[in-house]
Recover the amino acids of this structure.
């Protein structure tokens, strides 16, 4: 069993190169959102009869997409943070789908065509983290929905290694 399954849902997961920031989303003027850090939490995965799965974080990604992740080299939930970190790199496109049922939440997706789509949700008011983005889920879908609103322009892993 993955050690991540022993964590409380809101526990921040460490980036593979250290620290708990997975990247930086630039300001998105179209949505009125400022620049913010990306965090990955241990998360939860819920299944209710007659309802689509819900949740966020590593547990939601692993439990909902295990088979697809195994095809991409993830053998356990412990591999999910590495996989997520590989999606948040310079040039990764950022999209917003105004037609999505939760568009008012200003959720955005990060698209790496061959690797799929990462869904992030802006979160405000956290007393420790301030305004930030939380990883909700990942899908193997290689095509964007919505309109492009930006792209990742900071290599967080490289930047934090600088003296």
């Amino acid at each position: 069993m993955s050690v991540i399954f022993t964590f409380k849902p809101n526990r921040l997961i460490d980036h593979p190169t250290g620290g708990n920031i997975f990247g930086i989303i630039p300001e998105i003027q179209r949505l009125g959102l400022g620049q913010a850090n990306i965090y990955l939490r241990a998360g939860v995965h819920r299944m209710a009869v007659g309802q689509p799965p819900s949740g966020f974080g590593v547990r939601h990604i692993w439990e909902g997409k295990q088979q697809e992740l195994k095809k991409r080299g993830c053998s356990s939930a412990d591999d999910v943070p590495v996989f997520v970190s590989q999606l948040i790199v310079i040039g990764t496109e950022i999209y917003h789908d105004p037609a999505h049922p939760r568009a008012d939440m200003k959720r955005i997706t990060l698209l790496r065509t061959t690797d799929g789509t990462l869904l992030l949700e802006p979160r405000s008011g956290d007393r420790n983290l301030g305004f930030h983005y939380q990883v909700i889920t990942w899908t193997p879908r290689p095509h964007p929905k919505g309109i492009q609103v930006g792209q990742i322009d900071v290599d967080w892993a490289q930047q934090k290694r600088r003296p």
Remarks:
- Strands lie at 23-25, 36-39, 44-46, 54-56, 93-96, 108-112, 116-123, 132-139, 147-151.
- The two ends are 37 Å apart (CA to CA).
- The chain has a mean pLDDT of 88.
- Residues 3-159 form one domain.
